[in-house]
Amino acid sequence: MFSCLLLALTGWGMAWRLSRRISKPESPPPAARTRPVPHHPPQTHDPHQLAETIPGMALVLGAMGQVLACNRAAQTRHGDSLHALLRHPNARNSLHTALNAPLMPESDIPTACSTTISLDVPIQRTIRLSMRRLPGTVGRDSLVLTLLDDRSAIQAADRIRADFVAHASHELRTPLASLSGFIDLLRDGGDQTDPASRSLYLDIMHQQATRMQRLIDRLLYLSQLELKGHQRPREQLDIGELFATVLGEVMPRFRDSSRQLDMTHEDDLTVLADEDELVQVLLNLMENAIRYGTQPDRPLHVRLNARRSGLDDDLAAGDTGVLLSVADNGPGIAAHHLPRLTERFYRITDAPISDNTDTGQGTGLGLAIVRQILDRHGGRLRFVSTPGEGTTCLIWLPAAPPA
Amino acid sequence: MQQRQHIVQRYEDELLRLRSLMEQMGGLVEHQLSLILASLAGNDTRTALEAAQQDSAVDALEHEIEALAIRLLALRGPMAVDLREIIACIPMASALERMGDYASSIARRLNQMDQPIPHTARTALHEMGRLVLDHLRRVMNALERKDAREAHAIWQADQLVDQYGNAMTGDCLKQMTHHPQTIRLHISLLFIIRNLERIGDHTTNMAERIVFMVTGTTLPSARPHAHDDGLSPP
Asked: Which residues does UniProt call coiled coil (chain A) (predicted)?
């Protein structure tokens, strides 16, 4: 009887020690002060196993907020912003609450708490965190189970609607004013307006209406991009195919002998990307090259290149990936404009805009769209320009992991 | 034996606590910048005030980190990478405190604007703020992962912030010459731009400390600056 009890006690003690060791693999066995609390039989918590068991995005945090385990779903979706989330004051407060949470009535499970966090960089995200201390863990050995719920899409919809209204109301005002001005002129003039002026007014009105149409189209496209901004594209895209599609699209613009296009790329370059969006990126950049690079005294030469990024490419910062470049031999862009080119509606006011009938005035959104697309792809963008020699747009995209 | 384990445990706990406080402080300053961005995007000065109110919490954390680092140095005799980490925390906390100060100063200024900021200037400030916040986020991640390579990359990338600042400063000067009635407004904007640049500078200070902490080597004292030549990439 006595030996039986002894055996039971040692067995229990070993199970306890084992469970402690599993729950905190790197620390030595606990000092004498920690003893199992009676009536609360210690439970085995392997943080990794626990996190991985949960369908959805889950983490296990320690008492100091350190990440003890992070399941694959959380790692894939939020690996890059996990720590930014966890150090946010809301998350810290929530952790504090969870660590000190009282037990739920008539149960030994601590109450849960939750908070919502919005991050601005690298892309806008809204995530709801829910935390609960694991039953049976106390003090410095506490484990807090944390679930992540991505609310970005709902949040983005609200924000994008507000942005759209703000931009549209601001940018449509000018063409609209011009349009109503000419309408008034025509109405006040009645039949007295001579046919020549009348046709001139109508031409301008048509131009302004087209401009408004283009502006709205681009704003809508930008809004759509923003809506899916928090999802990284996962399709494999071959750069050779991308270039072929782009070539098909721009060929008609380069029939003219005053414009020349070179396309070169290394073989077997693949990125994870949305093909339509990358085509849009290259088209926008080439359109800019045509619009702002054309000079009366020399033919325009646009070069499109793709290669693997090397260690000495600053934009790659040592990461493996693909470097795309679109270069023109236009008049170049003054250095103080370069950092601001991708701002919405930023226009270079002192640049002479070449008078091309097939391009017209820009909407000021082309490069904002380029940037938005690249952000979603985890890409980087930089403009390099030497006045008098031309402008090069460099794009770096992370390499697709080997299939 | 057990006592020694106990001491090791205490030491590790305190080191964990120091890291946790650094994370918390970084998170708080990031949050301040986020609030400023929100205020710029929504043209809402109340959010800006909220950013200014975080200042005392940031200051308190700096003192706590300093006290804990000194305590660890005095009582535990840390060595090698631990020693460098603990020493580096003191200037890094002070850099974060300065950033918090600049953020509060921007917030108060936004709150006191007597003229509305023009749409384009607001967009530009928002963009520059995002760039600064992104660098701070990256430097905090590099600290957490002890990633000297990333720290070095941010150290170099700060010249993008400087370039942005220069571009906007030039714009402000032009506006002031052409529209003298907006001089007050543009002086305020210049201060905000300057404060954002300074936050960027302190981010590079942190990056330097991280490189030192991980590798034990120091970066050259001259950082690539945008005004050296505005054209070459960093």
From this structure: none
